[in-house]
Amino acid sequence: MAQRATILTSLAGDPIWGCESTPEIRCADAYGHGLGWMVYDYGDRTVLNHGGNDAGENALVYYSPQTRSGAVILVNGGNGIFVTVRALELIGDQPDMAAYYRQLVRKHYGVTMAPGA
């Protein structure tokens, strides 16, 4: 884990992946790319994340070493990101990440997803 932290490339202010703090969204204290994974440091826990999507598939894999929780979410279909966000919310172990992904959906798709709606 220490090696990942030393190789971290910050995404703060990034036009694609940047997080905007709001009363509903707690952005990670530090986040960026590290050894092929996105790394989110929330202070009390780190979440490692890797995903991808195209016109027909959407995938999200995440794991937190501190909480020993994670998931592999695979969705077929052009609107897979919406289902992925809902699955992340239903799993419920990373609410900050779910809120961040709702923000990305608003930013990139122009759709506001209310929590759990």
Automatic annotation (TrEMBL):
Gene3D superfamilies attached to this UniProt entry: DD-peptidase/beta-lactamase superfamily
In which domain of life is the source organism classified?
Bacteria
Instruction: Please state every residue range assigned to the domain named Beta-lactamase-related.
Output: 32-86
InterPro entries linked:
Beta-lactam-related, Beta-lactam/transpept-like
Coiled coil: which residue ranges? none
Name the UniProt record assigns to this protein: Beta-lactamase
Q: Which organism is it from?
A: Nannocystis exedens
Q: What is the lineage of its organism?
A: Bacteria, Pseudomonadati, Myxococcota, Polyangia, Nannocystales
